Amino acid sequence: MAYQFDFVDVFKYTDVLARGVGLTVTLIGVGGTIGIAVGIAGAWARGYSGNRALEWLVAGYVEAIRNTPFLVQLFFIFYGLPSLGVRLTEVQAALLAMVVNLGAYATEIIRAGIEAVPRGQREAGASLAMTRMQVFRHVVLRPALQKIWPALSSQLVIVMFGSAVCSQIAAEELTYAANFIQSRNFRAFEVYFVATGLYLVLALLLRQGMRSLGGWLVFGRRA
Amino acid sequence: MSLIEIRDLHKRFGAVEVLKGIDLDIAAGEVVAIIGKSGSGKSTLLRCMNGLESHEAGSITVGGKVLLQDEEHLRALRLEVGMVFQQFNLFPHLTAGRNVMLSPMVVKGLAEAEAKPIAEKVLARVGLAEKFGSFPDQLSGGQQQRVAIARALAMNPKALLCDEITSALDPELVNEVLAVVKSLAADGMTLAMVTHEMRFARDVCDRVLFMHQGRIHESGRPEDVFASPKTPELQQFLGALS
User: Fold this and answer.
1) What ipTM was reported for this prediction?
2) In terms of C-beta density within 10 A (0-12 exposed, 13-18 middle, 19 or more buried), how is residue A53 classed?
3) CB contact under 8 A, A132 and B135
């Protein structure tokens, strides 16, 4: 094999990589948080509110997003919306696309959790004179999230990988950084090897982070 | 005036009419047992009394409050009647104490410091003062059901509905729950209970209702109902139990 590996040529661009990692982390941190909030609201609307119009509206949103490619959703937001006068920066568009995308998947995941909470739990809350909203907040939500937390964590990792697609609108996240570097030094193998390693580390950290967050927020047993 | 007044109550699930005209008055302080075969409508009747099941025709009034199906009226009525379920239905993510405190805090808007003494009092009432910090999965079935009773009592209801509250318990745990119910009855709590515990019904209740095919088929004082059942259906029902 004649190819000579040269990682030094990649590490010259450490600052570019670091900025890329920074934006990827920001995208998944902010987009993930808002996306899960959207998912909780969507799951409430579609699986709990009892409002037919709302159920159909959210069902339409969920199915539209789940049955179209993320790249197209991203292009639609970044290139399509300006025709309506909505002009977003690359990062804003990337964030919005991730929130919209994760929100739809999270809606379905969390709805499954809500449906897995036994009916008797809601009846107990209702019989204690709670409103439907109070029952949702205090009785249903936490057990529902407990049941689907691992699935939600996996979805978050998937969405983080999806953020690589945002390089296509020149959001300067990790994949964009890798593309940029290899276009300068032609060290494709080395650059993508490093980028792959970084994604792996980020994914493992994200899973661990979700485990800790879940232990604190969702599974936490406070007396 | 009766605490609970039911007039010509009709309820159907799809094509099946499960309640075919129920008239029932329960006085304050009265303890009523509802017995009958499964499918006779006894649980449905009980669940109608606090609006967990809607009804098509007839009326239910509790403590002067008419049961209507909108949330506001339902909640007003549910402040008057507590309910205890066969499957306990404790909230698994909360301690026994928090299970009891939740509704006083959320519904009545009490501060934690106000709700806590109430929870301690009702848990002591069911003999579980020391289990305040235990989670439901750390308690036996009998203890869970007593916490569920305490949770209902914390809202200070005028009446308590008990839906087969010992049917999911191991036999040796039944008595500790019935003892709590008995002491509530002795304290003058109004109780309507669907039960298969005939001895308990005979010893503790003021009145027994036998339900058959969606109607109150026979009713009376327990000593009469059990000793000399008039209808063949009740005779057959009691005969099958002994």
Assistant:
1) 0.93
2) exposed
3) no
